[in-house]
Amino acid sequence: MRINWRLSLAVTGLAVSAAIGAALWPHAQASLAVVAAQEDPARLSELQVASMLRTDPVLIARNIDDALAAGDPDLAESFVALAREHQVTLDDARVQRVSDAVATEKAPTSVAKRFATGLVTGQADDVASLSGTVAGDLFVFGDIRDAIREGKHLVMGEETDRLVLGLATAGLAVTAATYVSAGGAAPVRAGLTLVKDARKVGRLGEGLAAWAGRSAREVVDAPLLQQAVASGSVLRPGETATAIRAAFRAEKAGALVRLAKDVGRITEKAGTRGALDSLKLADGPKDIARAARLAEAKGGQTRAILKLLGRGALLLTAGAFNLALWLFGALMTLFSAVASLKAMTERATQSVIDRGKRRRLRRMQAAAASGQLVAAAPCG
Question: What is the pTM of this model?
Answer without folding.
Answer: 0.69
